[in-house]
Amino acid sequence: MEEPKDTYKTLTKDSPEVLFKDKNSKFYGYAFPVTSEEEVKEHLEDLKKKHHAARHWCYAWQLGKEDYQYRANDDGEPSNSAGMPIYGQIQSFEVTNVLIVVVRYFGGVKLGVGGLINAYKTAAQMALEASNIVEHTIDKRFEIAFDYPEMNKVMRVIKENNLNVLEQKLELDCRILISVRKKEAERIYEKFDATYKVKISELED
């Protein structure tokens, strides 16, 4: 049986500006790490100010770690000649929580749909190649609740399984928040759930 996927790739920071030229048209590519549509809007507004003389600001974004949302926008170019080729590179590099924008200055010579697809795809690819891409694990968060006398039992499980403690309140009634890598989550949950006088509950993100 295939293990559930519990990692995702994203960017650590904005990419440097890249430039692809074809028949006098210039295509400036940018990649940004984003976590909301609000951030997407902010980056687009900034680029429209920076490149106010450009003809098109085409883009694609993808958000989410497991359930993905995405959007591709041709911004006036022929249908599917810009946004989808850019989105194709997001899929090809397997990145998420990312926005790629390609800004076009028209050079006076029409490139045709095939030429546009190639130009937008290439500028997006160059932006991602220039980016710092990292892999993160998808983690589940749990709250463990217990009375002070059970402390040793709980701490032993945490130590033996090398669990990441996010915060803790150790008084008469104790609470510890832990994060566990997704593929380990069920096993760790059962370990605590089977421990007498210890309650474990999963926290929503």
Automatic annotation (TrEMBL):
Residues 23-128 form the Impact N-terminal domain. InterPro entries: Impact (IPR023582), Impact_N (IPR001498), Impact_N_sf (IPR036956), Ribosomal_Su5_D2-typ_SF (IPR020568). This is IMPACT family protein. Belongs to the IMPACT family. The lineage of its organism: Bacteria, Pseudomonadati, Bacteroidota, Flavobacteriia, Flavobacteriales. It comes from the Bacteria. Gene3D superfamilies: Impact, N-terminal domain. It comes from Salinimicrobium flavum.
